[in-house]
Amino acid sequence: MRYLQLIRVAPDAEPGSDEDPTAWVEDTTRRGIRLRGDRLRPEDDATTVRRHDGATLVTDGPFAEAREQIGGFDLLEAADLAEAVAVAAAHPVTRFGAIELRAVAPFGDPELDAAGPPEAADAPAPAGWHTYVLLMGVDGDAPGPDFDDPATQEAWRTPLREWIADGRRRGLLIDGAALTGPEQATTVRVQDGRTVVVDGPFAEAREHVGGYQVIQAPSLDDAIELAATHPASAVGPIEIRPVWPM
């Protein structure tokens, strides 16, 4: 089963010299648990895109203000939640921050698999291009699409299929998926050498991440254009975060 590991760190956190994640990355990658991941640039470098009444609205900053920002992510392949928790707890960031685990929610339709071709995950981006992560925001207080309704499913299926096909054709998509809701999240910390596991998201917030997409694009303007044409931009914000370095 796949889990997205969201790394949460306060801006004033001071990791120690023994909290370099390089050994964790090398070990989990070697074992085939960590499929990919990136450190994200600060939220000051975020751009949020929404679509309203046919117009694209672009604002600087994240879609939700939070003290502990998302500083990075890793996509994990684990046998079950218990293994994912054990892997997350071994990450040094849990000693001064927290990790929120969110299960990937498969669509069950190959044409709605938002990953690019397998070689896209390992190949370097074309010269001059940059890598970005799109975080699909969901407003928990606003009525969203009823995905239990077959008509709603079909209404989303066609534009999403077209968006994915276009992104693949242009070589923009690397990886992406929808996530299970925040009520199914698990937060992991390590305090005084003891692993602390809490059911639920890292912080209670009106808006949460409902999915993600890793892309590569020639510029931020191209990333904005891609985000603005995603069907999710019409029902919630999409936060664009460049990966580090940039």
Automatic annotation (TrEMBL):
<feature type="domain" description="YCII-related">
    <location>
        <begin position="1"/>
        <end position="107"/>
    </location>
</feature>
<dbReference type="InterPro" id="IPR011008">
    <property type="entry name" value="Dimeric_a/b-barrel"/>
</dbReference>
<dbReference type="Pfam" id="PF03795">
    <property type="entry name" value="YCII"/>
</dbReference>
<protein>
    <recommendedName>
        <fullName>YCII-related domain-containing protein</fullName>
    </recommendedName>
</protein>
<dbReference type="InterPro" id="IPR005545">
    <property type="entry name" value="YCII"/>
</dbReference>
<comment type="similarity">
    <text>Belongs to the YciI family.</text>
</comment>
<feature type="domain" description="YCII-related">
    <location>
        <begin position="179"/>
        <end position="246"/>
    </location>
</feature>
